[in-house]
Amino acid sequence: MTVHGHKIDAGLPPILRPVIAELLARRGSLLRDWVARHGSPLNLVWPDALRENLDALRAALTEHHIAHAIFYGAKVNKSPGLMRAALDAGAGLDISSLYELRDARRLGAEGARIVATGPAKTPAFHQQLLDCQALISVDAPEELEDLIAALPADGGPQPILLRLQPRDQKRSRFGMPAEAVIHCLARLASENRLRFDGLHFHLSGYRWETRLAALNEAADLIAEARQMGFSPRMIDIGGGLPIQYVDEAKYQAHLAAQTPEDYRTGAVPDSFYPYGGALSAADWLSELLQAKMSKGTSVANYLEHERLILAMEPGRALADQAAISVFRILRVKALGPDAHVIFLEGSSFSACETWFASEFLIDPILVPATRAAVQSAPVRAYLAGHSCLDEDVISNRWLTFPTAPKAGDLLVYANTAGYQMDLLENEFHRHPMPARFCVTQDAEGRPNLVPDTIGEL
Ligand SMILES: Cc1ncc(COP(=O)(O)O)c(C=O)c1O
Q1: Which CATH code for domain 48-244+279-318?
Q2: Looking at ligand 1, which atom is closest to the CA of residue 318?
Q3: 203 C-alpha to center of ligand 1: Å?
Q4: What is the pLDDT of residue 457?
Q5: What is the pTM of this model?
Q6: pLDDT of 3
Q7: Atom of ligand 1 at shortest range from CA of 317
Q8: Bridge partners for 400 per DSSP
Q9: Where are the beta strands (DSSP E) in 98-236?
């Protein structure tokens, strides 16, 4: 099918949890009411999705008899509701700042349920981590020295991990190469206020195969540490477990068919998140656990034989289906006979993939203001917000709407909890920060909003 000579692709409808599909399909007036009261964009969070995602990962781990520790990567979203859901479901929290730590503590997390990652920990952050004896992933020999300097004379033993920079991530600023890990171990041999609990890595990209390669490197270092007299008990493989946002076949067809003309910029972005990957997070984990390490045993058997806990810090994957972002359409402006820009109340700081020279490759869902959508010719448009910068748009991709959107309709981006919702949100043009609520159900089963703040949860 074509619109004014432009092809319309098959589309990339997002996979939706039934509760969200039902809200979008049947409760448009409730959504509009919420947006009228709380503004646009409105971020709606379903914390119970996190528990379901956690259960799926745990099922894969227990099937392989793996001792494990799952820490929710709290950086993925600013919602305290999601942090609380992780704690209530028995998971820990992966935090990377003093402020995430404070929220974790205010939500009741003991130090034993916290791992602190990231290379740029401030002295105040170190101090509070030491105060609650949270597990600290040490990023570099320099950080180890800072930490030692901060230890009280009679303190400890303070648990730490050493963060490995796997060989194929040599240009990364995160972690340290194997030689530096050995250097740190030698330093730890004379420092009994610190307890070496094991190794940590977190890799860019979403392939389990790269984690297998890093696990092989970690296994060599675990053996070396044991020879040096340490008793490591954990390997933490970081995050990067995938989300399936759209159907795999549709995604592959879309990638194969898209052309530069499909983008306002006249260029297809160089890279995309694998929005239509073949594996769920749980299947990804199972593939990794069954994979053979270089010594011939499976990862699962290696971990069991070495009595190692498999720790991980999924952020995005635990937030799968946990939020949507609802934008109100402000205006639909014709740019010519076959092109429009749809202005949304909000900005690309909320749906922010264009800031990474990429694109959130799922289709937004139109929720019309009136129940019976007025039939019209299809409309081809890109999305922009209130920003004054010409290049700053919400989608560079030309989207085709079978029915013309109009002012007052809602456009909903689904599955935004993982970095797509509030990573870059700010008060540009002094617009207030978008509101965020947890969606619960009242006694009659109707959706209900609860402010997503620590005080209200
Ligand atoms: C150290 C560390 N762990 C975990 C994560 C979470 O990654 P993801 O959201 O891809 O699971 C990140 C993300 O940057 C990270 O830096």
Answers
A1: 3.20.20.10
A2: 11
A3: 8
A4: 66
A5: 0.96
A6: 46
A7: 11
A8: 380
A9: 114-116, 135-138, 158-163, 194-200, 234-236
C-alpha of residue 449 to centroid of ligand 1, in Å = 29
Atom of ligand 1 nearest to the CA of 314: 11
**For residue 239, how far is its CA from the centre of ligand 1 (angstroms)?**
4
Helix axes 178-189, 141-150, angle to 10 degrees: 20
Residues contacting ligand 1 via CB (< 6 Å): 73, 75-76, 94, 117, 202, 238-241, 313-317
Domain ranges of the chain: 2-46+321-451, 48-244+279-318
**Closest ligand 1 atom number to CA of residue 418:** 9
Ordered mean pLDDT values, 10 residues apiece, the chain (457 residues): 51 96 94 97 97 98 97 98 98 98 98 97 98 98 97 91 95 96 97 97 97 98 98 98 98 96 96 97 98 97 98 98 97 94 91 91 94 76 93 95 94 97 91 96 90 85
* CATH architecture of the domain covering 2-46+321-451: Beta Barrel (2.40)
Tokens of 359: 């694109």
Span from the CA of 314 to the centroid of ligand 1 (angstroms): 6
Contact 41/394 with Cβ under 8 angstroms? no
The predicted structure's pLDDT at residue 25: 94
Question: For residues 414 and 428, what is the distance between their CA atoms, to the nearest angstrom?
Answer: 23
